[in-house]
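Example for tutorial group B:
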């Protein structure tokens, strides 16, 4: 485990801090689809992603969800970090996008390390900055892009996160992530298939050409 921590965080965190993470962190292996953090739950620690991917969702008063961003190797959820500093409840839901290994840092260490280790303070700041920019992109996507464009970006992100051109996702699940309806998503997916961008199969989508360089 310590070797893996050094490999992932060695360039950004000092050796003494990595040693502490190794000692106090709680290692977990999470299967794809497993809920890691629930909206309204008390934040007791911050997960650092070692391998895999986590999707972070927001929910409105009617229970409609919206995908905010993904967490990948070496990243932490700034929403959870904020909850640690304020000792508050989680405002987001986090679900393993694929099989994921993570290490959970206890809440008291999050606060203490921010004072003790400059590298940790920098890591926290960079996490906030990265997630803030991703949130801005999500807002821009909702405000300025139509559902066709949002769907294409969603599929591209899915393919990148899972490192596969085959996306195992139902139309209903995609609609849920994009806060749309299954009928609309199915229509737009069929349009993309007719354009030669994807190939639709039962419960999965094969990416043919979504202009990944764009």
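The residue assignment follows.
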């Amino acid at each position: 485990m310590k070797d893996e921590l050094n490999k992932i965080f060695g360039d950004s965190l000092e050796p003494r801090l990595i040693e502490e993470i190794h000692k106090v962190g709680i290692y977990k292996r999470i299967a794809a689809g497993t809920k890691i953090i629930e909206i309204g739950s008390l934040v007791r620690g911050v997960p650092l992603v070692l391998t895999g991917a986590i999707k972070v969702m927001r929910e409105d008063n009617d229970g409609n969800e919206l995908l905010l961003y993904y967490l990948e190797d070496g990243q932490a959820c700034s929403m959870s970090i904020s909850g640690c500093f304020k000792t508050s409840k989680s405002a987001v839901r986090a679900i393993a996008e694929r099989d994921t290994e993570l290490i959970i840092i206890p809440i008291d260490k999050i606060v203490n390390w921010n004072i003790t280790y400059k590298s940790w303070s920098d890591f926290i700041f960079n996490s906030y900055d990265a997630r803030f920019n991703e949130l801005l992109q999500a807002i821009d996507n909702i405000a300025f892009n139509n559902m066709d464009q949002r769907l294409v970006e969603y599929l591209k992100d899915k393919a990148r996160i899972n490192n596969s051109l085959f996306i195992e996702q139902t139309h209903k699940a995609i609609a849920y992530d994009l806060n749309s309806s299954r009928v609309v998503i199915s229509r737009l997916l069929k349009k993309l298939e007719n354009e030669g961008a994807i190939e639709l199969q039962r419960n999965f989508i094969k990416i043919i050409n979504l202009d990944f360089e764009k």
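DSSP finds eight helices and eight strands in the chain. Compare this with the pattern of hydrophobic and polar residues in the output above.
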